[in-house]
Structure formats: structure tokens, C-alpha cells
Write a structure and sequence with these properties.
The chain contains eleven helices and no strands. The chain has about 220 residues and is mostly helical. It has two domains: about 5-120, Endonuclease III, domain 1, CATH 1.10.340.30; about 130-215, Orthogonal Bundle (Endonuclease Iii, domain 2). Helix 6 packs across helix 7. The radius of gyration is 19 Å and the shape is globular.
Length: about 220
């Protein structure tokens, strides 16, 4: 999985991913691009047209308003040559500057900003969603009950440089496939030997080995 270089697309995809699954998100995104091929068209379209296009992704009224508000905010203060509706400048900007800018956009939080920086350009950030948070907390990597700002800071601090994307994807997959919220499949878990939460779910303790973050990205 390599950075795709399309930051606005990543912004929109992340908005569409809220409270739905990947399949519905992708259907909604493809319908939006088929009906309104350019971001200028999405920004200038009637709200009802955007809402109808993304309906398969759920809560389409809320998401359509947010998407158009984000695009309008980007267009209001263009930073790329020619005044285009573009975020290409993020690729070469200091990461703190890019993150702060993204967080200033309507409805954009730390996870969404991290998705754009990491997935679009491979910059050093790690999105922490509910799956990553759950797995990281159970592994003792993150403080239980911590706010998402702290979770992102801690996850970034413990991630080996260059392993941001790999760690995020592996934790996400592990949360979806094995470390479920209600009934984690501890008996099938490759990380059970190093997991301090294993006793909570009926797994016999064993000696942890290795550094967890490095093990996950090995």
C-alpha cells in the first residue's frame, strides 16, 4: 500500500467512512465522482445532489454538508499556484503546518488529518480510529480512556519511523479480524503472548517477548 497523492480525495473518503463500512463508503465515493467528476462541481452543486450521490454511505445529509463546507474552506484560501481547489502543497509543507491547516477545516479532527497526511503523502502520522485505539489499549500501548489527541500523540511517539502505515494497517486489521470489541478471539490471536489484557478474556498468561510495536511491524 503506497501513498496515492490525492489529499482531497482522502478527505472526502474519510468523511464518507464515518459510521459505515468500507464497501458502502466506496460505493458512495464512486457515485459522487461519477455524478460530479470534479471537486469544483461537488462544491458548487445543490446540496441535495451531493446528498443523493453519497446516500449509500449513510447519514448523507450530514456528510454532504460537511464535504461541501470543507471544499469551500479550501477554495476560500487557496495555497497552490493558480488558486486551484487543491491541497498539493501539503506534500512539501512541514508536517505540523499541514496538520494544523487540516484541523482548521470544518469538521476535520486529528484522525482525518492523519489519514490525509499518511495515506496521501506517506508523511509521519498515524490515524487512531476505534479499532486502533482498542487494540493499542489492550496491548498496553495506549492509556485506557485517554482523549483522541493523546492517543494520536502516544501512537506516533511509539511508532518506529517509516513504519507508520504498516503499523496502522496491521492494528486496524487485527481489530477487525481478531481483537473484536465484545468478544475478542484471543485463542486465535498471534499477539496473545505479549498482550497484558489476555487474562481478561480467559487466556492463560505466558511470558511476553519483544517490543510490541516492533513485533507488529516485523
Amino acid at each position: 500500500m503506497r501513498p496515492h497523492g490525492h489529499p482531497i480525495a482522502e478527505l472526502v473518503l474519510t468523511v464518507l467512512s464515518q459510521s459505515t463500512n468500507d464497501r458502502n463508503r466506496d460505493v458512495a465515493y464512486l457515485r459522487l465522482r461519477e455524478r460530479l467528476p470534479s471537486w469544483q462541481e461537488v462544491m458548487g452543486a445543490p446540496a441535495a445532489a451531493v446528498e443523493e450521490a453519497i446516500r449509500p454511505g449513510g447519514i448523507s445529509r450530514v456528510k454532504s454538508v460537511r464535504i461541501q463546507a470543507i471544499l469551500e474552506a479550501i477554495a476560500a484560501q487557496p495555497r497552490d499556484p493558480g488558486g486551484e481547489l487543491s491541497l498539493d502543497w501539503l506534500a512539501s509543507a512541514p508536517i505540523e503546518q499541514g496538520r494544523d491547516y487540516l484541523l482548521s477545516l470544518p469538521g476535520v479532527g486529528r484522525k482525518t488529518a492523519a489519514c490525509v497526511l499518511l495515506f496521501a503523502y506517506g508523511l509521519r502520522d498515524v490515524p487512531v480510529d476505534t479499532h486502533v485505539s482498542r487494540v493499542g489499549t489492550r496491548l498496553g500501548l495506549l492509556r485506557a480512556g485517554a482523549p483522541f489527541e493523546e492517543l494520536h500523540d502516544e501512537m506516533l511517539a511509539l511508532t518506529p519511523p517509516g513504519k507508520e502505515l504498516e503499523l496502522h494497517v496491521n492494528l486496524l486489521r487485527h481489530g477487525r479480524r481478531t481483537c473484536h470489541a465484545r468478544s475478542p478471539a484471543c485463542s486465535q490471536c498471534a499477539l496473545a503472548r505479549m498482550c497484558p489484557s489476555r487474562n481478561l478474556f480467559g487466556v492463560q498468561p505466558s511470558q511476553p517477548r519483544g517490543r510490541t510495536a516492533n513485533a507488529i511491524t516485523a
